[in-house]
Amino acid sequence: MSTIVVQEFITLDGVVQGGGGPEEDREGGFDLGGWAMNYDAEHDKQDEGGPIIVEWESRTEALLLGRKTYDIWASAWGVWDESADGTMGEFTRRYNRVTKYVASRTLAELGWKNSELLGEDVPTAVAKLRDAPGGEIRVWGSTELVKTLAEHDLVDEYRFIVYPIVLGTGKKLFTDGFPQSTLAFAETRTLASGVVVNTYRRPGAD
After folding, report:
1. Is the residue at 206 inside a domain?
2. Is 94 a domain residue?
C-alpha cells in the first residue's frame, strides 16, 4: 500500500502560495512570492531546513499534482539541468524519473515526461494508486486537489513547514468548506530560524 503525503510551506495565516519565488504563482495578483525563500536566506544560515526536505524527497516514489501546480513544476523541474550540482540536480533527476499523476479537467496531454492524467474520477483513481504497493506519493501545493483528497479521506499524512510570517493575502490550504478533519500529531521540530516543522497523520495511519 502506498501513502499519500501532503507537504506545504505555510505561513501563520495559512498561506501556501508562491513560497519559492516571485514569479512562481502570481494568480489573483499575488505579489509576495518568494516569502519562504527570502526568509530562509535571511534566517536559516545553517541550512537546517535543506536536509529535512532532502530526506523527505528521497522517499518520493510518485508526485500527485493539481493542474496549476503541475504547470509550475513542469516549467521548472521539468526543464532544469539534471547535472546541476547539489539538491537542484538531485531533485530534478528524481522528479523527472518518478511518475507525475495530474488532476485536471482541462489538459488533454502532458509534456513533462512520465506524466499521466488521472481522468474524470480523481478520488477513485487516487484510491487505486494508494491501494497499490509502493512508497510515498507526494503532494505539493495543489490546494484544490488536497481538498478533494481530504473529502474522500485519502490523505495519510500532512507535513507543514510553518514560517513565522503573516502575509494577509494569498491562497490558503484550509479554506471555508474544507472537510472537518481530526488528525493525530506525529512529530514537531523547531529550527533555529524560527521555522517549525509539524507532521500530522490520519488516525490509524502507520
Report:
1. no
2. yes
Note whether residue 170 is domain-resident.
Answer: yes
Can you give the CATH number for the domain in which 138 is found?
Answer: 3.40.430.10
Output the nine-digit C-alpha cell for 132. Answer: 497499490
Task: Point out which residues pair with 171 in neighbouring strands.
Answer: none
Contact 138, 63 (CB under 8 A): yes
If the chain, 206 residues long, is cut into consecutive pieces of 10 residues, what is the mean pLDDT of each piece? 96 96 93 96 92 93 95 92 91 95 91 94 96 94 95 96 97 94 95 97 78
Look at residues 59, 55, 3 and name the one whose alpha carbon lies nearest to residue 206: 3
HSE-up (13 A, CA, CB side) for residue 106: 5
* Whether this model's pTM surpasses 0.90: yes
Give a three-class secondary structure readout of the chain.
CCEEEEEEEEECCCECCCCCCCCCCCHHHCCCCCHHHHHHHHHCCCCCHHHHHHHHHCCEEEEEEEHHHHHHHHCCCCCCCCCCCHHHHHHHHHHHHCEEEEECCCCCCCCCCCEEECCCCHHHHHHHHHHCCCCEEEEECCHHHHHHHHHCCCCCEEEEEEECCCCCCCCECCCCCCCCCCCEEEEEEECCCCCEEEEEECCCCC
